[in-house]
Amino acid sequence: MPTRQQPPAGAVAAGLPGIDEAEATLVEHYPRLVRLAYLTLPASLGRHRRVLVAHSTVQRALPRAHRSQRTPRVPAQRGTEASAYLWVRTRVLRAALRHELRPRWWPARAGGSAVRWPGLPLVVGLRLFPSAGGAEELALDQALSALAAPARAAFALTVLEGLSDQEVLALLKEAGAADPEEALWSAARLRRAGDGRTESLLRSAEFDPCAVQTRPTDLLRRRQRARSIATGAAFVVIAAAVVTVSDEAARDAGPVTAMDAGNVALARALDPELLEHAPRDEWADTSRIDFSVWPARGDRVNDTALLERALRAWARPDTELRVSATADTAKVPPAKPPRLLFAGEWDGAAVVLLHEGERVVRYAEPVSGDGPAALDFARTDNADVTTAAALVVNRTASGARYLLAPWIAETTTRDLLAPDSPARDLEVSADGVTAVVPSPAPGGSCSSWPVLQLRSSERIVENHAFLVTDLGDLAPVHLTHTPPPSSGAPARQPREATGGPALTGWARGACLLATLRGSGVRAVNNWTYAEQELPDKGGRAAWVCTRADTWRGRGRVLVQFQPPAGAVTAPGAVVAEAKDSAACSRFGQHVLAGTHWRSPSGRWFLLAAGSRAVTRISASGAVTAGAAGPTLAVPAPRDAQVKLSGRMRGGEGLSALGG
Prior knowledge:
The chain is α+β, with helices and mostly antiparallel strands. It is built from 14 helices and 26 strands. Strands 10, 11, 12, 13, 14, 15, 16, 17, 18 and 19 form a ten-stranded mixed β-sheet that branches. The chain has a five-stranded mixed β-sheet with strand order 3-7-6-5-4, with helices on one face. It has a four-stranded antiparallel β-sheet with strand order 23-22-25-26, with no helix packed on it. Strand 6 and strand 7 (374-379) form a beta hairpin. Helix 2 packs across helix 3. It is flat.
């Protein structure tokens, strides 16, 4: 437990700190308070906005003093540890928690975050963001973003401030948090899943809003934007004069457009001339590899009419437009001019791909003019080299075409159900569009499972090959695997699924991917968490946890029991399942599951297996048994109802995953 830093001497005067003392304490502990605010604020703000709001929250924590008050006092903190720091911390926490709360009439941005009036500090012309960390920091950031604000605050208070559970509960109640007990429970669960690494990760530069990096906004369009702002200001003045002179004429002029209503931001977002364009080689000279550095490609990037139809459809979809969206993806109009990724014609359809913040939007219309247009929304926040590697351009009855990221240097295809077959070359156009890749068969048929095997350019990642597959969304899904404990590989280290053992493992679990179609999945990992020698000379079985992570941070878990089989593609049996769980992830690496199994001799057994930290498994109910180590096998009737529990190295208990 970290040691709490005490406020400096003099910060408290007779238990009632003055504003001068509180301000001095705020300045001294400024980085500590800003980090607390940053962790409590919602990730949906984006890193730049969250940094500014965190600083603004702390800087505005002190109340205004009346001029007549030479030595104003602030209320003392309850308890024996009354201090200016405790009072300021409560003020900061209360303001950060209230950020997600707004009256019904208060406008909201895409994603649900409240629009707040600007406050100091303000930054113009630069984007601020903390230094990017590694995979562990990213995983913790995603886990935190899935928690409610009170739970994030409780996590920061226990890990960084070193407060006890009782102190955290009291502070959350003082700050007006909803359901402090639930928040504390969620924070404790995430802390336990961090395997002792949470404090060092939380103190890293990834979560330090006082040590930020800067990047410029669009340098090429600043002058154009300045002219547009000046034009908009002139328009507002003229429009006000016109309204003053003739309100009746304005009412009789016809339908009110965005510009007529004064919505200059929306009008700019719908102007195809203002679409963002990334420099063609920016991806090779930046530390951020995602959709924001894709250059505009396609043979119709200069087709203003097509781009305008796509933007208008996005802003005002009509009844004939077919609209779809992955889970938790906002379908609101763009807040600013989006980035153009692609505009071209393939398979009888004109397609436009646009990127704005956390979303990718695809507009497609038939070239012949027959049939409705389509508009698809997909969430793509925190994409990286692998999850921003491709987007679907068009789907046909035979498969899908993809637009590849500019950093993809080699493209092949392979069949997951034929792990020994070599990868086959795939034709790619000069604009980065692939030939049609067969889609996995819908329904119950699973005779093959085509995947893309991509290799990134040595300009960013040397010799990095990975697999992605189509699960019905705009972005294909990244496939990885985690080796079994007997492989000697470090724990909790997913690998790219391109080697022989990984492909062999995926051959038995590929057909399970069909159950994940259209659910906004970002990545799927196959983790062979245990291997077990079966009784009655039944051979060696594998216990595999398949975890699907979605773009919105939630996960779905399927545990398979894979006994020896004659065919390399024989599917395992799903023996446990969980939704919205951290199980089988970096923050939930302990797992236990069980099943009934019939041996070659015809006898039935109760089998169970836990991950490498499990030292004992116990069964109770219709069967009472126990075994040291991570596996258990005892004779039991086929329908015996049992409850499984495990014990880990540190003495903690572990419940079996829901069956």
